[in-house]
Amino acid sequence: MHSGFGALRQRASMSCGQRVRLNELPADLRADLARLEALWAEGLARFGGPFLAGAAFGAVDAFYAPVAFRVQTYGLPLAQPAAASRCAAARAAGDARLVRCRARRTLA
Which among 23, 25, 32, 93 has the fewest CB atoms less than 10 Å away? Predict the structure, then answer.
């Protein structure tokens, strides 16, 4: 995340406490989301899910937690199974007290 997904980082800052609607999904952001879907789908297919490397929340899920929360905050579209993995990772990260996240309001 520190050097990849540039459009996602630029257009969707980390903000767990709010829900934000983007007015548009530019091509570079759609490309980042497609890459994310491919990576997550590969991990889920290879290790069987529901997390990226198997049945339990692990290091790779923690690594992608900021991405998962950006997708959640901005309501960014992900195809299945990546969308399900994002939900599982965000839930587990919150349950593990790694990140506390509650939506207080939606910004348009």
Answer: 23
Q: Is the pLDDT of residue 46 over 80?
A: yes
Q: What residues form DSSP beta bridges with 20?
A: 107
Q: How far apart are CA 78 and CA 75, in angstroms?
A: 9
Q: Is 43 helix (H, G, I), strand (E, B) or coil?
A: helix
DSSP 3-state of 54: strand
Contact (Cβ atoms closer than 8 angstroms) between residue 5 and residue 35:
yes
Domain locations in the chain? 26-98
Indicate the DSSP class of residue 51: B
Do residues 101 and 70 lie in contact, with contact meaning Cβ atoms separated by under 8 Å? Answer: no
Per-residue pLDDT of 91-104, as tens digits, reads: 666 554 444 444 44
Q: What is the pTM of this model?
A: 0.78
